[in-house]
Design goal:
This protein has 409 residues and is of the alpha/beta class. The chain has 16 helices and 14 strands. It has helices at residues 11-21, 34-40, 58-67, 71-76, 85-97, 111-119, 131-145, 156-172, 187-199, 215-221, 243-252, 261-275, 285-292, 313-326, 343-354, 386-398; strands at 30-32, 43-47, 78-81, 101-105, 123-126, 148-149, 178-182, 204-210, 255-259, 301-305, 330-338, 357-364, 374-382, 402-405. The protein starts with 10 loop residues before the first helix and ends with a strand. InterPro entries: ACT-like_dom_sf (IPR045865), ACT_dom (IPR002912), ACT_ThrD-II-like (IPR044561), Ser/Thr_Dehydratase (IPR050147), Thr_deHydtase_catblc (IPR005789), TrpB-like_PALP (IPR001926), TrpB-like_PALP_sf (IPR036052).
């Protein structure tokens, strides 16, 4: 059986991986977004890896690794540490191939992720509070039970599988001159950059990390950015990037951009609203970078990878509502008024005049710095556009009301 190189991926290994996995993974669509192209002033192409069966690109690397195990290794089984897309990819393809799969997850992993992974046939072990604890236990199981450890990114076979995306992108859009790729541990961009630079040496490769987790940027560029915090892009929230991947990225990636949380939220919402496609925070990071700094991409023929679509539905709902707030269609107004009959009627009349719908109201009489005869009426409202709410605020102020508007950032 042909084996990959032991040091780093090559275009020949990636082509071999493409042939190896083609019958069991989806060749996902690669489409130009006319609307996003207009917004960014570039030719923007999207690779919809969120349409894989497990909704993430991770299947490519996991399957390529599993297919190269010997019969004896398959019989012993594999182990992986993951609370996300890698777990489901290894579990799904392990079951397909008849390979016993053990997945170690932190005890804090949401029940739905544990259930989904078990649903793919894996044996799930919950160990430790953090991913590092789960990872350490997975290595213990590897040694104790002689299992094969399937690393989520720092494995050449896994990188070769991910690199097949780069081949497909350039086959479907050969004129691309830039690829924008999310970075967590670095396996995806290592494979994609290897393929793309081999096929088109002048192509620019831009990596994207969450601003809260600039791990690879720190390593490659010698930075000292603080690492940690709650990010919507948990799929790329990696504290310690790969040892193999950092060398490849240092050689092949032209720059690494950082994206703020509000820009990741904006990109997720834009993909739902414009492309009608659900993408998780990590998967939207590339688009987030383009939307945040369009001048860095203007005039380019640029492709990005929507590398995953596994986002909690309640979290997605929050993101979409927050987007309505940012674009001015939903607002929360704090209106100071005299606490007397007719005050609320006078306020609601202004809402009616401006065509603004009231979602919820609350009176605050006690916890306020206003005089005892006054009250604060907090109103959550929605309108057809931002101008309608701006007009409402002006009319309320013209009528003598003091209005404060809550802001997200």
């Amino acid at each position: 059986m042909d084996a990959p190189t032991t040091t780093r991926p090559t275009i020949d290994d990636i082509r071999a991986a493409a042939g190896r996995i083609k019958e069991a993974v989806i060749r996902t669509p690669m489409m130009k977004s006319e609307t996003l192209s207009q917004i960014i002033d570039a030719d923007v192409w999207l690779k919809f890896e969120n349409l894989q069966f497990t909704a993430a690109y991770k299947e490519r690397g996991a399957l390529n690794k599993l297919l190269q195990l010997t019969a004896e290794e398959r019989a012993r089984g594999v182990v992986a540490a993951s609370a996300g897309n890698h777990a489901q990819a290894v579990a799904y393809h392990g079951r397909r191939l008849g390979i016993p799969v053990t997945i170690v997850m932190p005890v804090s992993t949401p029940t739905i992720k544990v259930t989904q992974t078990e649903g793919h046939g894996a044996h799930v072990v919950l160990r430790g509070e953090r991913f590092d604890d789960a990872y350490a236990h997975a290595l213990e199981l590897e040694a104790e039970r002689r299992l094969v450890f399937v690393h989520p990114f720092d494995d050449v076979a896994v990188m070769n599988g991910a690199g097949t995306i780069g081949i497909e992108m350039l086959e479907d859009a050969p004129d691309l001159d830039m690829l924008v790729v999310p970075i967590g541990g670095g396996g995806l961009i290592s494979g994609v950059a290897t393929a793309a630079k081999a096929l088109k040496p002048d192509i620019k490769i831009v990596g994207v990390e969450a601003e809260l987790y600039p791990s690879m940027k720190n390593v490659v560029e010698g930075g000292h950015g603080a690492i940690g915090g709650d990010t919507l892009a948990e799929g790329i929230a990696v504290k310690e990037p790969g040892q193999l991947t950092r060398a490849i990225i240092g050689e092949l990636v032209d720059r690494i951009d950082l994206v703020a949380e509000k820009d990741i939220e904006h990109a997720v919402a834009m993909l739902v609203n414009i492309e009608k496609s659900v993408v998780e925070g990590a998967g939207a990071a590339g688009l987030a970078a383009m939307l945040a700094q369009p001048e860095r991409f203007r005039g380019r023929k640029v492709g990005t990878i929507l590398c995953g679509g596994n986002i909690d539905t309640h979290l997605l709902a929050n993101v979409l509502v927050r987007e309505l707030v940012r674009c001015g269609r939903i607002a929360r107004l704090r209106i100071a008024a005299q606490d007397r009959p007719g005050a609320l009627a006078a306020i609601t009349a202004k809402f009616y005049e401006c065509g603004v719908n009231i979602i919820e109201t609350n009176h605050h009489r006690i916890f306020t710095r206003l005089p005892a005869k006054d009250t604060v009426i907090e109103v959550e409202c929605e309108a057809r556009d931002a101008q309608a709410i701006d007009t409402l605020v002006k009319r309320l102020e013209d009528a003598g009301f003091n209005v404060e508007r809550a802001e997200l950032d």
